[in-house]
Design a protein that fits this description.
Blueprint (H helix, E strand, L loop, with lengths): L5 E5 H14 L5 E6 L9 E7 L13 H13 L3 E9 L8 H5 L7 E6 L13 E8 L2 E10 L1
Parallel strand pairs: 1-7, 4-5
Antiparallel strand pairs: 2-3, 2-4, 5-6, 6-7
Length: 149
């Protein structure tokens, strides 16, 4: 499976993503992390681009097609890349579900998942679990995610 073993994510982006995940409850939240290039090409995360969850569900996400089109055109115009596809799990771990794996249509992008499940929170800080994954075919491999200032 191509891609980096570890990546960095600025804390300001992580904080914005977690805030949007909390605001979306009871439903899953989704959006894109826009980067300078794909992670496998050495791209760095630049900004968080929230999107509407067209499914409006606590169990599944579907990036709103109009939001995806708008963001894709903007990303292309700025010569950027989809660095990661992000969504939240309201009550389950920050691991790709079988549905997440089946619906991973952007093989160059990472998948960042936020878990709002209390049992998954960091024991020291209480912060939600945020994890990154590479998904190719029917395989998901975790990528070490380092949060940086």
């Amino acid at each position: 499976m191509n891609g980096p073993a570890s990546v960095t994510l600025p804390a300001v982006l992580r904080d914005a993503i977690v805030a949007d995940a909390r605001a979306a409850v009871p439903n899953e939240m989704c959006g894109l992390i826009v980067g300078s290039d794909a992670p496998a090409a050495g791209g760095m995360a630049l900004r968080w681009a929230p999107a509407r969850n067209a499914a409006a569900s606590p169990y599944v996400y579907d990036v709103d097609p109009a939001d995806l089109l708008r963001l894709s055109l903007e990303i292309d115009a700025r010569d950027e890349a989809i660095w990661a596809i992000v969504h939240s799990h309201v009550a389950s771990p920050a691991r790709p579900s079988p549905t997440d794996v089946r619906r991973a249509f952007y093989p160059d992008a990472l998948h960042v998942i936020v878990s709002l499940a209390p049992a998954e929170a960091d024991r020291a800080t209480g912060a939600p679990s945020v994890r990154a994954w590479r998904i190719a075919g029917d395989t998901a491999a975790e990528v070490a995610l380092e949060i940086v200032p």
